[in-house]
TrEMBL record:
<dbReference type="InterPro" id="IPR002756">
    <property type="entry name" value="MfnF"/>
</dbReference>
<dbReference type="Pfam" id="PF01968">
    <property type="entry name" value="Hydantoinase_A"/>
</dbReference>
<dbReference type="GO" id="GO:0016787">
    <property type="term" value="F:hydrolase activity"/>
</dbReference>
<dbReference type="InterPro" id="IPR043129">
    <property type="entry name" value="ATPase_NBD"/>
</dbReference>
<protein>
    <submittedName>
        <fullName>H4MPT-linked C1 transfer pathway protein</fullName>
    </submittedName>
</protein>
<dbReference type="InterPro" id="IPR002821">
    <property type="entry name" value="Hydantoinase_A"/>
</dbReference>
<feature type="domain" description="Hydantoinase A/oxoprolinase">
    <location>
        <begin position="64"/>
        <end position="332"/>
    </location>
</feature>
Length: 340
């Protein structure tokens, strides 16, 4: 039996195909594609199909589970509109059983239509199913390309205080910051350099992918999103973009200056995540953290260590590629349990 789990995000669409034999997981294969849903949502059908075909024939898939966060993109007037649009695309594409991850249960299409907001941004529910098998009492921190989920788990079950992104943004459980796509000036107001403090320009000149590219903390193939200026992804091009947030360029700032600036930004983003993690840790009285996602090592784990919390990595149990698409794996597992 092969179960496909999709995590359809605003910028990336992730797929995990989990193969079962005699009720046990035999194999997990993963793949993803950068798909900016805010202006290319009409490509979703082809992307879903092509992602499966990169692993196996679509006809080999026995069931498809869907989680999503793409309903928030400004292509859709409301989140409900986004959920229904994405679900319609999926239903037209697949002939096998399909269901959708909600914040409280897996939903059929009829249940989704009755309450589409139940499905909006519920992919963290799928990740919690995996993390709970690693540590029964912990906080899992999933730092992806765009956001960071900070979800408490007690007695093997997630117990997030907020259920929607709107609610979780007030509880410390959602920090809208990530490894690749975050505008640097969304969390940086000024930067110290050479004994001076420089206020930043609040333009979309550079993103966190540029910082971690310059610092060699991500691989070339990790930089999957578009650049702010439409230029390339070399370290020099990333450095040039970073220089612009100080209204400068590489004639004014050296590469050593850019690295110093990048180190400062890195530490400030760690602190940003740590503030949310501290709120959840103190409220829930949990001192163990399980990290996952693209930023698990360079951001999530560092935030936990800053707070002197015990840290485990999902990377000790899954490959880095699997950690990056953990919600898709969790979605496939939940779908398999649903059809049984």
């Amino acid at each position: 039996m092969k179960i496909a789990g999709f995590d359809i995000g605003g910028a990336n669409t992730d797929l995990a195909i989990v193969e079962y034999e005699d009720g046990e997981i035999k194999d997990i294969q993963t793949v993803f594609e950068y798909l900016p849903m805010w202006y290319q949502n009409e490509r979703l059908r082809n992307v879903l199909y092509d992602l499966i075909e990169k692993i196996c024939s679509v006809e080999e898939i026995d069931a498809v589970g869907i989680s999503m966060t793409a309903e928030l993109v400004d292509k859709f007037e409301t989140k409900a509109d986004g959920v229904l649009d994405i679900a319609t695309t999926c239903e037209k594409l697949f002939d096998c059983p399909i269901a959708y991850i909600g914040v409280d249960k897996v939903l059929s299409l009829a249940e989704l239509i009755a309450n589409p907001i139940e499905v909006a941004a519920a992919n963290w529910i799928a990740t919690s199913q995996i993390v709970a098998e690693i540590e029964k009492d912990c906080i899992f921190v999933d730092t992806g390309s765009t956001t960071t989920d900070i979800i408490p788990i007690k007695d093997g079950k997630e117990c997030a205080k907020g259920r929607t992104d709107f609610e979780r943004s007030a509880t410390g459980e959602l920090v809208y910051t990530g490894t690749l796509r975050t505008n640097l000036t969304s969390f940086i107001e000024s930067i110290p350099l050479n004994g001076e403090t420089y206020r930043v320009s609040s333009e979309l000149f550079a993103i966190t992918a540029d910082v971690y590219n310059v610092l060699d903390l991500i691989k070339d193939e990790d930089y999957v999103c578009a650049t702010c200026d439409g230029a390339g992804k070399s370290k020099e091009e990333s450095a040039r973009r970073i220089s612009r947030i100080l209204c400068a360029d590489l004639d004014i700032l050296s590469m050593d200056d850019i690295k110093e600036i990048s180190e400062y930004i890195h530490q400030e983003q760690i602190k940003q995540i740590a503030r949310g993690l501290k709120e959840v840790s103190q409220r829930e009285e949990l001192d163990k953290v399980v990290v996952t996602g693209l930023g698990k090592d360079i951001l999530s784990a560092e935030a936990a260590r800053l707070l002197n919390l015990d840290v485990k990595s999902m990377g000790d149990y899954f490959s880095d590629d699997e950690c990056t698409v953990a919600p898709a794996i969790g979605t496939a597992i939940m779908m398999k349990n649903y059809i049984e």
